[in-house]
Specification:
single chain; alpha/beta; six-stranded mixed β-sheet; 35% helix; globular
Length: 571
């Protein structure tokens, strides 16, 4: 007997209001019970739009066509109650999905709305709390939970309704590396223990590709690949041969996939996908050539004069609960300094103290120049109806010509116009650089997470600041735009600006930061050049460093591994 797919779509296309191009176009695929499917693609390619189509009450407003099915039933014709219980949805922002005040209230909320009897609710909440390890915070207020706990709670509050399929839209976007692994371990256990089908949209593919049964690859609104994890590299290679350019998602693939693609032998058709498989493959190649180390030398940028100094700073939100205990940091000008650390270590608080938003309890803060801070949630900055208006409003109280001079990466033609057209030109140039020109008339709330992040960054830069404090700026960005974004930051730094960013993105920091520091328990535990920082750490390091450790020396980036193997004749 042929199995009925748990979820299926046939020729789905959709266009948002006031747009001329489809956000998704002619997408068809099906997934079976118990399958773990990863959906990937560059920011803005349509992943979120597609996922929202499978959740009846979240189908976006616009013009669409095609058919959607849940267990063979037309999804749009299904009973709302069955749809709500059968298809679970977890978004990327932990706070937006929480609706009650206490953890146990949140777990019970969905069941109460489905009309489940009280005794059954009590049994199921107790059972789910133990399965997810929530006993110690079962009665806690939701506001006191960490980001990782909130996302686990979101997942548990969906799973308690016993859905047949889980839809997850970049659920680890705001979690640190350790919190991410905990969440993904829980998700993988659910898939294996319960047989719940999973459709997971992700930008950070290092940990999720090895978990998947299938990979769906999207590009510019179309589904261009439906393949096995160890065949992803072949899809990437075929696209590059056909189009003469790499897929934007290629740089986000696991380090083992990228290293294999750069150096595999003829006849090898399947790539390693996990760190373990990558180490085995790498060891075999290194053993064959007798290569034990690389000669790679990382050029270190000369440090400039200190532009921000924090000395022995303390800060507490309430008496007796210090977040920063003895925070000290000196940041040289003209460079990119990355602060890493777990959720709750005080990173965002430190940025807000350095920005002057919070006043420290003790210690001294010295800053040279104009400082601007960008929070994690870009939507908090949006006040206008369109993307273009969001940027124009920033120039109401600023001298556009002077602002243009602070943005060397924009190709401005008129910098001294008195007619007012310089504001429009500056905004148009910013839109082009942000790759948001096509979305300029779109509502900011309809943008993807990565696009919203770009727009918020553009707004901040139009203030002409000297020191930029960025809280998780690469959250939601695809690999291709991260490269452009990094080049943008480098241009800014080369022209005298300083960037201090808080991030969980190890690969980005390893590739582009000049210096890195680890914040733990309110203090900077370590600080040094990027190369020294990542080679000395065990967990707060890059996947490439974990894959190459003990096999190739001085390799903490994927490019280092590929270079070492190519020099040794492995390609």
């Amino acid at each position: 007997m042929e199995q009925t797919p748990v979820l299926a779509c046939e020729h789905i296309s959709f266009c948002y209001p006031r747009q001329t191009e489809n956000a998704i176009e002619d997408i068809s695929f099906a997934m079976n019970d118990g399958e773990f499917v990863v959906l990937c693609g560059q920011s803005g390619c349509g992943k979120t739009t597609l996922l929202r189509h499978f959740k009846k009450n979240q189908i976006p407003f616009g013009t669409g066509s095609g058919r959607l099915y849940y267990r063979g039933m037309d999804l749009e014709q299904m009973d709302d109650r069955r749809c709500a219980a059968g298809i679970g949805y977890v978004g990327q922002n932990p706070d937006t999905q929480l609706v009650t005040d206490k953890v146990w209230h949140e777990l019970a909320f969905g069941l109460e709305n489905l009309g489940v009897p009280g005794q059954q609710i009590r049994r199921r909440t107790a059972e789910i709390a133990q399965y997810f390890g929530m006993e110690d915070w079962f009665h806690k207020p939701v506001a006191e939970l960490s980001g990782g706990q909130k996302q686990i709670l979101n997942l548990a509050s969906v799973v308690i309704m016993q859905p047949g399929v889980l839809l997850l839209d970049e659920p680890t976007a705001q979690l640190d590396p350790i919190g991410t692994r905990r969440f993904l371990d829980t998700l993988g256990r659910l898939n294996k223990d319960m047989g719940t089908a999973v459709l997971l949209s992700e930008q950070r593919l290092e940990d999720v590709v090895p978990m998947a049964d299938r990979i769906l690859i999207m590009h510019q609104g179309k589904l261009i690949g439906d393949t096995l994890p160890n065949r992803c590299a072949n899809v990437l290679a075929d696209y590059e041969i056909l189009h003469g350019a790499k897929l934007p998602i290629a740089s986000a693939m696991p380090v083992a996939v990228r290293a294999w693609q750069g150096c595999h032998k003829a006849g090898e058709e399947e790539s390693p996908v996990s760190i373990r498989e990558g180490r085995s493959w790498l060891f075999t190649h290194v053993q064959k050539i007798g290569q034990e180390s690389t000669d790679r030398q990382q050029a270190e940028k000369e440090q400039g004069q200190t532009v921000l100094s924090a000395e022995h700073i303390t800060f507490a939100y309430e008496k007796g609960r210090k977040v920063l205990t003895d925070f000290s940091l000196q940041v040289p000008g003209g460079g990119l300094f990355a602060i890493l650390g777990g959720n709750g270590s005080g990173k965002s608080t430190a940025l807000k103290v350095m920005a002057g938003i919070y006043k420290q309890g003790r210690g001294k803060l010295r800053v040279q120049g104009k400082v601007r801070y960008l929070a994690q949630n870009p939507c908090s900055l949006f006040t206008e109806l369109t993307v273009k208006e969001e940027l124009l409003v920033m120039l109401l109280y600023e001298n556009a010509a002077q602002i243009a001079d602070t943005l060397p990466f924009l190709q401005m033609k008129e910098k001294n116009s008195k007619s007012g057209s310089i504001e429009n030109e500056l905004v148009e140039e910013m839109l082009d650089y942000l790759e948001l020109a096509k979305q300029k008339d779109q509502n900011p709330m309809d943008l993807s997470g990565g696009q919203q992040q770009r727009l918020a960054l553009g707004k901040m830069l139009l203030t002409g600041s000297d020191i930029l404090l960025l809280d998780e700026p690469t959250k939601g960005m695809d690999g291709a735009f991260k490269e452009k974004f990094a080049g943008w930051l480098r241009d800014i730094c080369d022209h005298g600006k300083t960037v201090i960013l808080v991030s969980h993105d190890m690969d980005f920091c390893a590739e582009y930061a000049d210096m890195c520091g680890l914040l733990f328990d309110g203090q900077m535990i370590s600080r040094g050049s990027t190369k020294d920082f990542f080679q000395e750490n065990t967990f707060y390091t890059t996947p490439a460093s974990r894959m190459a450790r003990g096999i190739l020396k001085d390799c903490f980036r994927t490019e280092d591994i590929i270079s070492a193997l190519q020099k040794a004749g492995c390609s």
